[in-house]
Amino acid sequence: MADSGGTRIEVKGLRNLTRTLVRAGVEVSDMKAANARVGMIVVRTGAAKAPRDSGRLAGSIKPAQRRAGVVVRSSLIYAGVQHWGWPRRNIRATLFLTSAIESERGHIETEYFEELDKIIGKVKGE
């Protein structure tokens, strides 16, 4: 999917975690499943919170795997305006992706902690 300047929210901190895991001899791909699950959590919640006129904005929200995590974004050019607002045009910020992350923070943390527990168990030989 080409990036046309749409809104992009990134889960931070995974880069440091990835480096630490690599130093411990863990394959980065071991986090891939957790990243995919977290991406879909944010997509579902973000789409539900997105402003609705035609539904195109909600339908455009997709996860993209990265080496050090997942990125959730909309490729629509107006997604940023809808998310962050544009006061000069009387468009209020909706923060639909940011609020999706905030409202699902516990669920997201649980996904990562459970995956990390599995990885640590593998490293320890359990």
Topology record:
Blueprint: E1 8-10, H1 14-23, H2 32-49, H3 56-59, E2 61-66, E3 69-74, H4 79-84, H5 96-103, H6 105-124
Antiparallel strand pairs: 1-3, 2-3
Q: Could you walk me through the main structural features you see in this protein, from its secondary elements to its overall organization?
A:
The chain is mainly alpha-helical and 126 residues long. It has one domain (8-124). The chain has helices at 14-23, 32-49, 56-59, 79-84, 96-103, 105-124, and strands at residues 8-10, 61-66, 69-74. A 3-stranded antiparallel sheet has the order 1-3-2. Helix 2 crosses helix 5 (96-103) and helix 2 runs antiparallel to helix 6.
Sheet with the most strands: spatial strand order: 1-3-2
| Unreliable residue runs | none
Count the beta strands: 3
Shape: elongated
Which descriptors apply to this entry?
126 residues; mainly alpha; 3-stranded antiparallel β-sheet; 6 helices; 52% helix; 12% strand; elongated
Quickly describe the structure:
The chain has 126 residues and is mainly alpha-helical. It has 6 helices and 3 strands.
